[in-house]
Structure formats: C-alpha cells, structure tokens
Design brief:
CATH architecture: 2-Layer Sandwich
Number of strands: 3
Structural class: alpha+beta
Radius of gyration: 15 Å
Strand order of the largest sheet: 1-2-3
CATH topology: GMP Synthetase, Chain A, domain 3
Number of domains: 1
Helix content: 25-40%
Strand content: 35-45%
C-alpha cells in the first residue's frame, strides 16, 4: 500500500523521500470461531509536501487504494483504515 501511494504521488511529482514520507501500521487480530485472523489494518501516513501541494496529495490519497494490488486482494476480508497527515514544508 505504501509503495502504491508513493508511486501515485510520484506521478504528480510529489516527492516521497524517506525524510518526507512514512507510515505507522497496526493491525488487530481476532479469534473467529477458534481461528485467529487479521480483522483490521490501520495505516497512518505522514507526508511532507512542498508548499501549496496539500490538496493534490489528498486527492491522490483518496484514489490510491483502488489501484493497490495488496489492498484489493484483502478488501472484503480485512478492514483497511487509512489516514493521511500532510505537512507543508517551508520554502527554502
């Protein structure tokens, strides 16, 4: 998922270098009829963008999951909850 979002952002020339892009990922495992299964995955992205690019980054974020092979493979079986925190960088 992180790679798909990075690729989508790169197509808009929004950099995703390691100092600008990270994700905190957590999951919940539940016992379903005696079988442990992953029930939810939470992905909280943190992205630093050039000034004035927040809306564009949010637009990309709103559409990336539909193009993500990993997400499309598990949606319907595992709840995916994602969020994006965008910080605009100061001009240099």
């Amino acid at each position: 998922m992180m790679g798909t979002l990075a690729t989508a952002l790169a197509s808009r020339k929004i950099p995703t270098h390691t100092d600008r892009y990270k994700a905190l990922v957590e999951g919940d495992i539940e016992d379903v009829d005696g079988v442990l299964r992953i029930a939810r995955i939470r992905v909280d992205y943190d992205l630093k963008v050039p000034r004035g690019r927040t809306a564009e980054a949010q637009e990309v974020f709103g559409a990336y999951l539909k193009k993500c092979p990993a997400a499309m493979s598990v949606i319907g079986c595992i709840d995916i909850i994602d969020s994006l925190q965008v910080t605009e960088l100061e001009d240099r």
